[in-house]
Design a protein that fits this description.
alpha/beta, Rossmann fold, pyruvate-formate lyase- activating enzyme, 5-stranded parallel sheet, 5-stranded mixed beta barrel, 14 helices
Length: about 400
């Protein structure tokens, strides 16, 4: 059977889709991740915003243009949040977030549909990864319950993967995998037993000689002990994606974020003590319902003060079922759009300052587009250079100047 797996949303979704793809390939199916003619489509959906949910529904219509008679299997957060929105589109099955690997047996007609939220970590047993950068899912779920966020209700409570399973997956990786990115819904909450153990995991992974990178983290993990531990991990890439969400204490409190701006600033200073040129990126929600103009101006000043290497900005999206939807009235869309534009200008300025402060770096070459080889430094600067090399090489480069979405560089 020819099957197309289409993925929306986060890196965790991408990892899960890749694991399903591998299992289908092992069972003899013709599988890819392209939007093209297929006998069946698996759509792994996202519900982090209203727009993401809308795109998940639209993906069905886009696929039907290639084959209206195909079978459609819907999974992921948007289907967990609202099953009916997909059943109304006459799809074959909607399975939600529980037992995602079970969709393989569902496609082959060997089992019934299970619709629930997983309570235990689902080990998807990825057999191999073929790109130079590989993702490994180490954690799922979230216990934070921020007032704006629907994800804890859709993925369940935080749970961690067994460390032996993680190491086993790394041991099976081919030589061409040069970098591992640890992903999860709340990576900072990775535990061995009842103890947080992300630093322990990184030290265990360090012996494999592959670059190690973390996905998004919460501020509460970053103690001096942890950062010092990271500084001793030889292959650790000093890029920290710390989700700020707002630079105003009043708004952070209404969001039920468990830190203040002073706490966040101490975390950043601690990171820079051990990693002076660390890339520090962040997410910020613009236009939370209680955010006044004065609150927003505090956020702009805080962004300038912290000097993030890159901002990921999102207009607030009201999600049914969250505390914010019950407590607050949404702001006007024009206000959110105006604030988004103004904060984006501040973010571009701090990014340019960060890029200019970097003079060199080690780049994992991921692809060649036209005349340029492309890849990222350890602190997550995208580099473009022309000197001949191979995809998968790790090369030293001299950084020349800002260019496109990164920098123009020259191989040393």
């Amino acid at each position: 059977m020819k099957i197309s797996i289409l993925t929306l949303g986060c890196k965790v979704n991408k990892y899960e889709s890749d694991a399903i793809m591998q299992e289908l390939l092992l069972r003899g199916h013709d599988v890819n991740d392209k939007l093209e003619f297929a006998d069946a489509y698996v759509i792994n959906t996202c519900a982090v915003t209203n727009e993401a949910e809308k795109k998940s529904r639209q993906m069905i219509e886009r696929a039907k243009k290639f084959n209206p008679d195909a079978k459609f299997y819907i999974m992921g957060c948007a289907s967990q949040k609202n099953k009916k929105q997909f059943e109304d589109k006459n799809v074959t099955a909607v399975i939600g977030n529980a037992n995602k690997m079970g969709i393989v047996d569902i496609i082959e007609g060997k089992t019934n549909i299970e619709f629930a939220i997983s309570k235990d970590f689902e080990d998807m047993k990825m057999s191999k990864q073929n790109l130079s950068r590989a993702f490994i899912k180490i954690q799922d779920g979230c216990n934070n319950f921020c007032t704006y966020c629907i994800i804890p209700y859709l993925r369940g409570r935080s749970r961690s993967r067994e460390i032996s399973s993680i190491l086993n997956e790394v041991e099976k990786m081919p030589e061409n995998v040069k970098e591992i990115v640890l992903v999860g819904i709340d990576v900072a909450d990775f535990k061995i037993g009842d103890e947080k153990a992300l630093g322990t995991l990184l030290k265990r992974l360090d012996v494999y000689g592959k670059r190690l990178r973390l996905s998004s983290m919460e501020d509460n993990l970053v103690t001096e002990e942890f950062v010092k531990e990271l500084s001793q991990v030889k292959n650790f890439c000093p890029h920290f994606h710390l989700s700020l969400q707002s630079g105003c204490d009043n708004v952070l409190k209404k969001m039920n974020r468990h830190y203040t701006t002073a706490d966040f600033e101490r975390t950043v200073n601690l990171i820079r003590k051990y990693f002076p040129l660390a890339g520090i990126t962040t997410d910020i929600i613009v236009g939370f319902p209680t955010e006044t103009e004065e609150d927003f101006e505090e956020t702009m000043k805080f962004v300038e003060k912290i000097k993030f290497s890159q901002l990921h900005l999102f207009p607030f999206s009201m999600r049914d079922g969250t505390a914010a939807a019950k407590l607050y009235k949404d702001l006007n869309g024009d206000i959110k759009a105006d604030r988004l534009k103004r904060l984006d200008a501040v973010g571009k300025k701090t990014r340019e300052e960060f890029l200019k402060a970097n003079k060199s770096g080690k780049v994992l070459v991921e692809e060649k587009n036209g005349q340029f080889y492309e890849g990222y430094t350890e602190n997550y600067i995208k580099c473009y250079f022309k000197e001949k090399c191979k995809v998968g090489d790790v090369v030293e480069v001299e950084i020349i100047k800002p260019f496109k979405d990164g920098v123009l560089a020259k191989k040393c």
